[in-house]
Amino acid sequence: MTFADLFERAAAHDATEDEVRVALADRRSGSENEGASDDDAESDADPSPVDREPSPARVVVDADVLAADLLVGGAAREALDALRAHSWTTLVASDALLDDAEAVIAALADAGLAADWRDAVEAWREPVAHPAGDHPALASAYRGTAMQVVSLDPSLTGARAAAGLRDRLPVSVREPRAFAAVFSAEKLYPEAVGGEYPGPDRDPRSMAPVGAGEDQHR
Question: Residue 49 needs a FRET pair 20 to 30 A away by CA distance; which of 12, 90, 93, 158 works?
Answer without folding.
Answer: 158
